[in-house]
Amino acid sequence: MGIAQKIFELGRQPIDEQATSAIPGYRASTSFVKRRTATVGQHLPVSSILGKQLPSKEVVYSLLEDYFDAIHWFSLAIYEPTFRKKLHTVVDGFAYPSQKPFLLLLAVVLGMGAWYRSQRRDSDMTENSAWRELSAELLNLVESHIVELMDQPSVTAAQICILFGSYHVYHGRPNFSFSLLGATIKISQAAGLHREPSRGDFEDVEERKRVWWTIYTWDRFASITYGRPLGINDKDCNISMPNDILENPYFVAPRSDHGYTICYSTYQRELNRLYLMASTALEAVFGSRTSGSSEKLAGDAYLALVKEATQNLQKWRNELPDHLFLDLEKDIRSDSGPSTTAHALQSLSLQLTYDNILIVLHRPFTGLPDQKDAAFEIPSPSAPVTSSVHWWNAALRTSRVIELPVLAQLATNSHLVAFLAINLFNAAIVLAVIALSDPLSDTAQIAKRTITRILRLQDLLGKRSALSKQSTTVLKNVVTLILRRESEAILAPITGSTQDERPRSMSDAVPMSVEDTLRLPLDASLETLNEQGRHQPWQYYSRAFRLNESLASVQDVVPFGNNDQSLDWYVNKAIHQSQDVVRESIGEDDQWQPSAQHDWNGASSFGETFEGVADTNGESGLYWLWDMSWNGTDF
């Protein structure tokens, strides 16, 4: 079909689209439609094209600024210079029918802007409710045209699907979002966005680059977050990185002439590089899940992949531009300007992505019974760091966002809110697994304090994101596990065995001396069964074994797709277990009460259901990373 189109174009003859629309490879000739439409002068009210009138010009401009403030810096789906030019042709309420795709793009942008406007704390409830209603109307309008857009591959169609999908992945409909992601990839490939343009003006080329790379990062995010297969093969793409472009985020009173422009695109380029560096190792991870075996992840080939990826990622982080490097020792000023604020949020996004990738890449080593835990050389300082240390450090860095309250508040008010919640959840699970493996250690105490702050922040984030509500429930269950394991370590009888003999309690035979008792490790009272079914003290097991046992414990509180329990079941379990821990560990006659009473029914009592907690086909959704299938079973 492409050759036929080229031949007709040489003769300046348009192909009869009625005669070719069913042929694979057909692309609508939008330029011909535009010329014909302009000739007959069909300038119609927007309401007659969309079936609904868009807001007034003043409201449109105001919501666009909200969109740029909350979303654009994070997801560069639109190219501001081109978007602004097209906006000026329709903002008076009239448009040509051929501009319908752009009108739908404008609708989804305004709908998302209205939703974030409705979350403002400085507005009254009535006004916020009106903005939420407008947001729902606009997004429903876009959804009613999604199938139509899929039949018309174009840059604009891809932009609409990107934004519509990104909204729903963060607000309770991830399955719909991932279906839309697959369609968006195919739409973009049909429009040739994955190939370097051979011609076209600068702005058109930059827009195509920006849209494609946004889809690429969406695909990688979906895979890492939900354990889905990669949808884009790097070998199929030959498009270059977008350039640094200054953009004007102001519409009510544009001030670009006075230096009020912001360069958002450096962030996109660095994010692209980050995912590209990890792609080969990620393909191995998801390939093992598809094949149903984790043997490859235990081999030297994957070890080499992760070693190379880790070194490249660390080098990438050290070479970041200053304005995109997150300083964990310094919070942003509350009176910072738009450019500083946008770049601070972008630096947080890059740091979260970087650490989450490290957690995913090093996760397979933690689940292996005979973990190699090989040392990886880091560029600077030059010292070996084990895989488990990479895991711990990545989780700690992620959790340190709780030490940056101003930046965390800005993230909560933006499109980063659910992404932040996802990464905090994974960090908390890493900390919990390590705490469970050695419950009385100093490391465990650090982990508990950090998880406490993460849980408090997740409770607040839950008011903005369905994902945060779900993860809060699971984290409460995890806290219960830690308390139970800690109480067992403190209250269980001391064992005085060696590795080859059955442990004895203090009531058996001759009591231990004071000196011997005080020389015992803190976890001497913990026992487990060895391979022969005999009780064995916890301290005799390797760190890898302890971590693996801790991961197994997490299975009891994380909802996976291979069981029939609902989210409500896990909520009730968290409530009852928290009560049981106090009764069992302290005793019914003791009057001691926790120093801070926490409402365990609060953020976990939902009046709605959410997708993505578990999948009836055995997929673990958001919690795939903590499934014991990493040990090669139960895929």
What's the structural domain tally?
4
Helix content: 55-70%
Net shape: globular
Strand order of the largest sheet: 1-2
Output the number of helix runs. Answer: 22
What this model shows, in words?
The chain has 635 residues and is mainly α. It has four domains: 1-30, no CATH class; 42-236, no CATH class; 264-408; 415-492 and 527-635, no CATH class. It has 22 helices and eight strands. It has helices at residues 2-10, 30-40, 46-50, 57-72, 80-88, 100-118, 125-143, 146-150, 155-170, 174-190, 202-226, 265-291, 300-318, 338-366, 387-399, 405-412, 417-437, 442-461, 466-491, 514-519, 543-554, 567-586, and strands at residues 44-45, 94-95, 246-247, 262-263, 375-377, 384-386, 527-529, 535-537. Strands 1-2 form a two-stranded antiparallel sheet. A hairpin with a 6-residue loop joins strand 5 (375-377) and strand 6. The chain is globular, with a radius of gyration of 28 Å. The two termini are 42 Å apart. Residues 177-248 form the Xylanolytic transcriptional activator regulatory domain. InterPro entries: AtrR-like, XnlR_reg_dom. Keywords: Nucleus. This is Xylanolytic transcriptional activator regulatory domain-containing protein.
